[in-house]
Amino acid sequence: MKAWLHAFFMAWGMFLAVPCPYKKWDEKALDKMLVFLPVMGLIVGGVWALAAYLTSLLVFPAAVTAALLAAVPWLLTGFIHLDGFMDVCDAALSRRDLETRQKILKDPHTGSFAVISLGLLMLASFAVLMSWEYSAEKLIPLALIPVSTRACAGVAVLGLKPMSTSQYSRKRDKRLIIPLCVMLAAAIALPVVFMRLSGIAPAAAAIGYWLFCLYGKRQLGGMNGDISGVALTLGECVGIIVLVFVR
Question: Can you give the pTM of this predicted structure?
Fold first, then answer.
Protein backbone atom coordinates (compact mmCIF):
# COMPACT_ATOMS: atom_id res chain seq x y z
CA MET A 1 0.00 0.00 0.00
CA LYS A 2 2.87 2.35 0.82
CA ALA A 3 4.33 1.80 -2.66
CA TRP A 4 1.03 2.87 -4.24
CA LEU A 5 0.94 6.00 -2.08
CA HIS A 6 4.50 6.81 -3.11
CA ALA A 7 3.55 6.18 -6.75
CA PHE A 8 0.67 8.66 -6.56
CA PHE A 9 2.83 11.47 -5.21
CA MET A 10 5.66 10.58 -7.61
CA ALA A 11 3.22 11.02 -10.51
CA TRP A 12 2.00 14.29 -9.02
CA GLY A 13 5.50 15.66 -8.53
CA MET A 14 6.70 14.61 -11.98
CA PHE A 15 3.72 15.29 -14.23
CA LEU A 16 2.05 18.31 -12.62
CA ALA A 17 3.38 21.80 -11.96
CA VAL A 18 1.00 22.10 -8.98
CA PRO A 19 3.16 21.99 -5.81
CA CYS A 20 3.27 18.47 -4.41
CA PRO A 21 2.82 18.26 -0.60
CA TYR A 22 4.78 15.01 -0.24
CA LYS A 23 8.02 14.49 -2.10
CA LYS A 24 9.18 10.90 -2.05
CA TRP A 25 10.97 8.96 -4.79
CA ASP A 26 10.81 5.17 -4.65
CA GLU A 27 12.38 3.23 -7.54
CA LYS A 28 10.25 0.22 -6.63
CA ALA A 29 7.11 2.28 -7.35
CA LEU A 30 8.27 3.48 -10.77
CA ASP A 31 5.93 1.20 -12.75
CA LYS A 32 3.02 1.91 -10.40
CA MET A 33 3.53 5.63 -10.97
CA LEU A 34 2.34 5.16 -14.55
CA VAL A 35 -1.02 3.85 -13.33
CA PHE A 36 -1.67 7.30 -11.87
CA LEU A 37 -1.01 9.08 -15.16
CA PRO A 38 -4.76 9.11 -16.03
CA VAL A 39 -5.49 10.52 -12.56
CA MET A 40 -3.11 13.39 -13.29
CA GLY A 41 -4.89 13.73 -16.61
CA LEU A 42 -8.23 14.04 -14.84
CA ILE A 43 -6.83 16.92 -12.78
CA VAL A 44 -5.55 18.63 -15.93
CA GLY A 45 -8.81 17.96 -17.74
CA GLY A 46 -10.91 19.18 -14.82
CA VAL A 47 -9.06 22.51 -14.71
CA TRP A 48 -9.26 22.72 -18.51
CA ALA A 49 -13.05 22.26 -18.43
CA LEU A 50 -13.36 24.77 -15.57
CA ALA A 51 -11.36 27.32 -17.57
CA ALA A 52 -13.66 26.77 -20.56
CA TYR A 53 -16.71 27.29 -18.35
CA LEU A 54 -15.33 30.44 -16.69
CA THR A 55 -14.27 32.07 -19.97
CA SER A 56 -17.82 31.58 -21.21
CA LEU A 57 -19.36 32.81 -17.97
CA LEU A 58 -17.19 35.93 -17.96
CA VAL A 59 -17.68 36.45 -21.73
CA PHE A 60 -13.98 36.63 -22.56
CA PRO A 61 -13.06 37.73 -26.10
CA ALA A 62 -12.53 34.81 -28.48
CA ALA A 63 -8.78 35.45 -28.79
CA VAL A 64 -8.27 35.54 -25.02
CA THR A 65 -10.31 32.36 -24.60
CA ALA A 66 -8.31 30.61 -27.33
CA ALA A 67 -4.97 31.63 -25.83
CA LEU A 68 -6.02 30.59 -22.33
CA LEU A 69 -7.45 27.23 -23.33
CA ALA A 70 -4.39 26.46 -25.45
CA ALA A 71 -2.06 27.27 -22.56
CA VAL A 72 -3.89 25.59 -19.65
CA PRO A 73 -2.66 21.99 -20.18
CA TRP A 74 0.89 23.16 -20.86
CA LEU A 75 0.99 25.37 -17.78
CA LEU A 76 -0.47 22.69 -15.50
CA THR A 77 2.14 20.15 -16.57
CA GLY A 78 5.09 22.53 -16.33
CA PHE A 79 5.75 22.07 -20.08
CA ILE A 80 7.16 18.57 -19.44
CA HIS A 81 5.36 17.05 -22.43
CA LEU A 82 6.22 20.02 -24.64
CA ASP A 83 9.86 19.39 -23.79
CA GLY A 84 9.52 15.86 -25.16
CA PHE A 85 7.68 17.20 -28.19
CA MET A 86 10.54 19.58 -29.00
CA ASP A 87 13.25 16.95 -28.43
CA VAL A 88 11.57 14.45 -30.75
CA CYS A 89 10.91 17.06 -33.44
CA ASP A 90 14.59 18.01 -33.43
CA ALA A 91 15.67 14.38 -33.74
CA ALA A 92 13.06 12.96 -36.13
CA LEU A 93 12.95 15.93 -38.50
CA SER A 94 16.74 15.97 -38.86
CA ARG A 95 16.36 12.98 -41.23
CA ARG A 96 19.76 11.67 -40.19
CA ASP A 97 20.71 8.04 -39.53
CA LEU A 98 19.26 6.35 -36.43
CA GLU A 99 22.37 6.72 -34.29
CA THR A 100 22.58 10.45 -35.01
CA ARG A 101 18.85 10.92 -34.35
CA GLN A 102 19.25 9.25 -30.96
CA LYS A 103 22.17 11.54 -30.13
CA ILE A 104 20.14 14.60 -31.14
CA LEU A 105 17.28 13.39 -28.92
CA LYS A 106 19.57 13.51 -25.89
CA ASP A 107 21.22 16.82 -26.83
CA PRO A 108 20.13 19.48 -24.27
CA HIS A 109 20.42 22.26 -26.85
CA THR A 110 17.31 23.43 -28.72
CA GLY A 111 17.47 23.16 -32.48
CA SER A 112 15.62 24.99 -35.24
CA PHE A 113 13.27 22.07 -35.93
CA ALA A 114 12.06 22.17 -32.32
CA VAL A 115 11.43 25.92 -32.41
CA ILE A 116 9.61 25.80 -35.74
CA SER A 117 7.50 22.81 -34.65
CA LEU A 118 6.55 24.47 -31.38
CA GLY A 119 5.55 27.64 -33.22
CA LEU A 120 3.34 25.66 -35.59
CA LEU A 121 1.78 23.72 -32.70
CA MET A 122 0.95 26.92 -30.82
CA LEU A 123 -0.44 28.52 -33.98
CA ALA A 124 -2.58 25.47 -34.75
CA SER A 125 -3.91 25.22 -31.19
CA PHE A 126 -4.77 28.90 -31.09
CA ALA A 127 -6.41 28.83 -34.54
CA VAL A 128 -8.57 25.82 -33.68
CA LEU A 129 -9.63 27.22 -30.32
CA MET A 130 -10.56 30.55 -31.92
CA SER A 131 -13.49 28.54 -33.32
CA TRP A 132 -14.44 27.21 -29.87
CA GLU A 133 -18.11 27.66 -29.07
CA TYR A 134 -19.00 26.95 -25.46
CA SER A 135 -21.45 24.17 -24.81
CA ALA A 136 -21.99 22.40 -21.49
CA GLU A 137 -22.03 19.02 -23.22
CA LYS A 138 -18.45 19.58 -24.41
CA LEU A 139 -17.04 19.93 -20.90
CA ILE A 140 -16.95 16.21 -20.10
CA PRO A 141 -15.18 15.22 -23.34
CA LEU A 142 -12.75 18.10 -22.80
CA ALA A 143 -12.00 16.91 -19.27
CA LEU A 144 -11.45 13.33 -20.46
CA ILE A 145 -9.09 14.07 -23.36
CA PRO A 146 -6.05 14.26 -21.03
CA VAL A 147 -7.21 11.11 -19.24
CA SER A 148 -7.35 9.25 -22.55
CA THR A 149 -3.90 10.34 -23.75
CA ARG A 150 -2.25 9.62 -20.40
CA ALA A 151 -3.79 6.17 -20.17
CA CYS A 152 -2.33 5.53 -23.63
CA ALA A 153 1.02 6.85 -22.42
CA GLY A 154 1.09 4.40 -19.52
CA VAL A 155 0.24 1.48 -21.80
CA ALA A 156 2.87 2.52 -24.36
CA VAL A 157 5.70 2.97 -21.86
CA LEU A 158 4.94 -0.33 -20.13
CA GLY A 159 4.13 -2.34 -23.24
CA LEU A 160 6.32 -1.16 -26.12
CA LYS A 161 9.97 -1.97 -26.62
CA PRO A 162 11.97 0.79 -24.89
CA MET A 163 15.06 2.59 -26.13
CA SER A 164 18.22 1.36 -24.43
CA THR A 165 18.64 4.75 -22.75
CA SER A 166 15.12 4.77 -21.27
CA GLN A 167 14.67 4.29 -17.53
CA TYR A 168 12.10 1.65 -18.49
CA SER A 169 14.65 -0.47 -20.39
CA ARG A 170 14.66 -2.82 -17.39
CA LYS A 171 11.98 -5.43 -16.81
CA ARG A 172 8.52 -3.83 -16.43
CA ASP A 173 5.39 -5.02 -14.65
CA LYS A 174 3.11 -5.43 -17.66
CA ARG A 175 0.19 -6.50 -15.46
CA LEU A 176 -0.29 -2.79 -14.73
CA ILE A 177 -1.43 -2.34 -18.32
CA ILE A 178 -4.80 -3.81 -17.29
CA PRO A 179 -5.96 -0.95 -15.00
CA LEU A 180 -4.66 1.56 -17.55
CA CYS A 181 -6.75 -0.09 -20.28
CA VAL A 182 -9.80 0.00 -18.01
CA MET A 183 -9.34 3.74 -17.43
CA LEU A 184 -8.76 4.30 -21.15
CA ALA A 185 -11.94 2.41 -22.02
CA ALA A 186 -13.92 4.44 -19.49
CA ALA A 187 -12.53 7.76 -20.77
CA ILE A 188 -13.51 6.81 -24.32
CA ALA A 189 -16.86 5.13 -23.65
CA LEU A 190 -18.47 7.49 -21.14
CA PRO A 191 -18.65 10.60 -23.36
CA VAL A 192 -19.66 8.52 -26.39
CA VAL A 193 -22.58 7.03 -24.46
CA PHE A 194 -23.81 10.21 -22.80
CA MET A 195 -22.84 12.99 -25.22
CA ARG A 196 -23.43 13.79 -28.87
CA LEU A 197 -20.81 13.46 -31.60
CA SER A 198 -18.39 15.68 -29.66
CA GLY A 199 -18.13 12.76 -27.24
CA ILE A 200 -15.74 11.01 -29.62
CA ALA A 201 -13.00 13.57 -28.85
CA PRO A 202 -11.23 11.40 -26.20
CA ALA A 203 -11.27 8.47 -28.64
CA ALA A 204 -9.80 10.71 -31.37
CA ALA A 205 -7.10 11.85 -28.93
CA ALA A 206 -6.23 8.21 -28.19
CA ILE A 207 -5.99 7.40 -31.90
CA GLY A 208 -3.81 10.47 -32.42
CA TYR A 209 -1.59 9.38 -29.53
CA TRP A 210 -0.94 5.94 -31.01
CA LEU A 211 -0.31 7.23 -34.53
CA PHE A 212 2.33 9.70 -33.36
CA CYS A 213 3.72 7.30 -30.76
CA LEU A 214 4.34 4.53 -33.28
CA TYR A 215 5.83 7.05 -35.72
CA GLY A 216 8.22 8.33 -33.05
CA LYS A 217 9.15 4.81 -31.96
CA ARG A 218 9.95 3.84 -35.54
CA GLN A 219 12.00 7.00 -36.10
CA LEU A 220 14.04 6.65 -32.92
CA GLY A 221 14.38 2.91 -32.46
CA GLY A 222 12.29 2.40 -29.32
CA MET A 223 9.96 3.94 -26.79
CA ASN A 224 10.84 6.54 -24.15
CA GLY A 225 9.34 9.47 -22.27
CA ASP A 226 10.12 12.00 -24.99
CA ILE A 227 8.21 9.99 -27.59
CA SER A 228 5.31 9.71 -25.15
CA GLY A 229 5.46 13.49 -24.73
CA VAL A 230 5.19 14.25 -28.44
CA ALA A 231 2.40 11.68 -28.88
CA LEU A 232 0.48 13.02 -25.89
CA THR A 233 0.82 16.64 -27.04
CA LEU A 234 -0.29 15.94 -30.61
CA GLY A 235 -2.97 13.48 -29.49
CA GLU A 236 -4.56 16.18 -27.35
CA CYS A 237 -4.39 18.55 -30.31
CA VAL A 238 -6.28 15.99 -32.40
CA GLY A 239 -8.85 15.64 -29.62
CA ILE A 240 -9.40 19.40 -29.49
CA ILE A 241 -9.82 19.60 -33.26
CA VAL A 242 -12.53 16.94 -33.12
CA LEU A 243 -14.19 18.53 -30.11
CA VAL A 244 -14.34 21.96 -31.79
CA PHE A 245 -15.37 20.95 -35.30
CA VAL A 246 -17.46 17.79 -34.89
CA ARG A 247 -21.02 18.68 -33.96
Answer: 0.94
Q: What does the pLDDT look like over 68-84, one tens digit per residue?
A: 999 999 999 999 999 99
Exposed/middle/buried for 39, CB within 10 Å: 0-12, 13-18, 19+? middle
Q: Where are the domains of the chain?
A: 38-245
Rounded distance between C-alpha atoms, residue 127 and residue 219, angstroms: 29
86 Cβ neighbours under 8 A, 6+ residues apart: 110, 114, 115, 117, 118
Split at pLDDT 50, 70, 90, the class of 214 is very high
Count each helix (H run) and each strand (E run) in the chain, helices first: 11, 0
Q: Yes or no: say if 238 and 208 are a contact pair by the CB < 8 Å rule.
A: yes
The pLDDT, as a whole number, for residue 196 is: 73
